[in-house]
Design a protein that fits this description.
Layout (H helix, E strand, L loop, with lengths): L6 E7 L32 E5 L7 H5 L2 E3 L19 E5 L3 E5 L4 E5 L5 E5 L8 H4 L18 E8 L5 E4 L6 H8 L17 E7 L2 E7 L14 H8 L4 E7 L9 H14 L14 E6 L4 H16 L3 E4 L8 H25 L16 E5 L6 E5 L1 H8 L6 H14 L1 H7 L7 E4 L5 E4 L7 H6 L6 H5 L5 H41 L1
Parallel strand pairs: 1-3, 2-4, 9-11, 9-12, 12-13, 13-14, 16-17
Antiparallel strand pairs: 1-8, 2-7, 5-6, 5-8, 10-11, 15-16, 17-18
Bound molecules: guanosine-5'-triphosphate and magnesium ion.
Length: 508
């Protein structure tokens, strides 16, 4: 049996940002005419767009790996890298987007609704953009950051006004083929229908959509047959039409018991919060296959019983098209009534807003891990993690720039308050991250603040000599000087004596 595709996991990889460029402008007579390295381009986003022409997620089932373009690297002469093109993935209307943990990100119910599921990486700044009055010619550029990579789950729930529910082979597909232009597969074996078929029915003034869904059997709400895959489609319909088979040859089955089993399954299906439980929606009953003589007899037999339960009952034949007009009129009435009610409600209901991913209000936080001695301080936060990605660790200047940025964010102060000491291991980012041995600046404000009252670590750190010590060393220096001078004098005298001796000798 083919798999039923209405739920697919996409493996996405958004484009990386291009690296910034380090370049120095050269002119005749001006070989070092300032930095001119351009910025890297941003990587392309991956965007889901609700499109009316898409009806299934089949294409994604076959090709679940999708990626968008990388940004181009910056170049000399202030040329920026090209921006990676966004990848737009059309999905059917009614697609629910979840992240890998199952949290709902968006519900694409209107055509044209868009959600960026995988943002592309940021292009790195070139050295021209990093130049300041203090750092006139940066010898480094920022690296592009990586695009988002991960899994997204798409789930399609058919959006239709009426859902046809019933046992396999009850004639649901035959019925939708008879009342609309839909051409579903019809065959006399169960589970012919694996994908929901949508049909547009025109009845008098009104138009509405009908969904023919896979057959439902006992235990479906626990996942039997096509189970939950099926029920998910029913979730959005405003009315249900029970299609009951009056001509089944299967022993032990009759329209009433079929209906009861299906009602039990529908009752057991948990609808999401805020939606009407399935059985509280308007329901009609169609007794199908009355073109078969036994079918008509059975239909007439069960009709009073069903009516006694409060259902409007229609005897129909999808094959001979008998009784279809009254049925479509009745459905149109239900749908129109529901639409009027919803239109009134929509005025008060808040608009659907696509929320961006949660953004940390604080820039970073420090988590202390490990035992009491070998403590490890982990810094988590979008900014520091991005900055680390942007740093080319082979370039000292770039590392220095990173240190400046981290200090400006106040990370050093927070490390002190968290109890870090010089030499402590600091990791930026989750997992292995980037590991540093922390060398604090001694005069940081935090250190002064956290020191006990009345002390100043700066005084402890420097071993300033006392006055007497300084005087002592002065004398020592002076003594040494006198001694050196005396020595020099003695040498000179010795030299003079020696030369005189030589002269005398020469005279001989
Ligand atoms: N005689 C008669 N046969 C019908 C009628 N409606 C459907 N059938 C037959 O019943 C069989 C099943 O019809 P389908 O329309 O495929 O049934 P279904 O409910 O869509 O079945 P699944 O997709 O498996 O759930 C086919 O052989 C149809 O020809 C009817 O009104 N009269
Ligand atoms: Mg079918």
């Amino acid at each position: 049996m083919a798999t039923f595709v209405d739920r697919v996991t996409l493996h996405l990889r958004a484009g990386n940002g291009g690296h910034g460029c380090v370049s120095v402008r050269r002119e005749k007579f001006k070989p070092l005419a300032g930095p001119d390295g351009g910025n890297g381009g941003d990587g392309g986003d991956i965007v889901l767009v609700a499109a009316a022409i898409e009806t299934t997620l089949l294409g994604y089932h076959r090709r679940p790996h999708r990626s968008s373009d990388n940004g181009g690297p910056g170049m000399g002469d202030n040329r920026s890298g090209f921006t990676g093109t966004d990848l737009e993935l059309p999905v059917p209307i009614g697609t629910v987007v979840r992240d890998a943990d199952g949290t709902e990100l968006a519900d694409l119910t209107e055509p044209g609704m868009r959600i960026v599921v995988a943002p592309g990486g940021q292009g790195g700044l070139g050295n021209a953009a990093l130049a300041t009055t203090k750092r006139k010619a940066p010898g480094f550029a920022l690296l592009g950051t990586e695009g988002w990579e991960g899994d997204i789950v798409l789930e399609l729930k058919t959006v239709a006004d009426v859902a046809l529910v019933g046992y396999p082979s009850a004639g649901k597909s035959s019925l939708i083929a008879a009342i609309s232009a839909a051409k579903p597969k019809i065959a006399d074996y169960p589970f012919t229908t694996l994908h929901p078929n949508l049909g547009v029915v025109e009845s008098g003034e009104s138009r509405f959509t009908v969904a023919d869904v896979p057959g439902l059997i006992e235990g479906a709400s626990e996942g039997k047959g096509l189970g939950l895959e099926f029920l998910r489609h029913v979730e959005r319909c405003s009315a249900l039409l029970h299609v009951l088979d009056c001509a089944t040859l299967e022993p032990g089955r009759d329209p009433i018991s079929d209906l009861e089993i299906i009602l039990t399954e529908l009752a057991a299906y948990p609808v999401p919060e805020g939606q009407t439980p399935l059985l509280e929606r308007p329901q009609l009953v169609a007794l199908n296959k009355v073109d078969v003589p036994e079918g008509r007899d059975l239909a007439e037999l069960v009709r009073p019983e069903l009516e006694a339960r409060g259902y409007r009952v229609f005897e129909i034949s999808a094959v001979s098209r008998e009784g279809l007009r009254p049925l479509t009129f009745a459905l149109a009435e239900l749908v129109e009534a529901d639409r009027t009610a919803k239109a009134a409600e929509a005025v008060t209901r808040e608009r659907i807003v696509l929320r961006p991913r949660a953004v940390n209000t604080e820039d970073f936080r420090i988590v202390v891990e490990g035992g009491s001695d070998g403590n490890l301080y982990r810094i988590l936060g979008a900014k520091p993690e991005r900055w680390v990605q942007q740093t080319d660790f082979r370039n000292d200047e770039a590392v220095g720039y990173l240190a400046d940025r981290l200090a400006k964010l106040g990370i050093e102060d927070k490390l002190f308050t968290a109890g870090a000491v010089a030499g402590a291991t600091v990791v930026i980012g989750p997992g292995d991250g980037v590991v540093f041995d922390w060398e604090p600046t001694l005069t940081s404000a935090a250190e002064l603040m956290t020191a006990p009252r009345g002390t100043d670590p700066r005084l402890d750190a420097l071993n300033r000599p006392s006055t007497s010590q300084r005087r002592q060393s002065y004398y020592e220096r002076m003594d040494a000087k006198t001694a050196a001078r005396a020595e020099l004098e003695a040498e000179r005298i010795a030299e003079r004596d020696a030369s005189r001796w030589n002269d005398e000798e020469g005279d001989d």
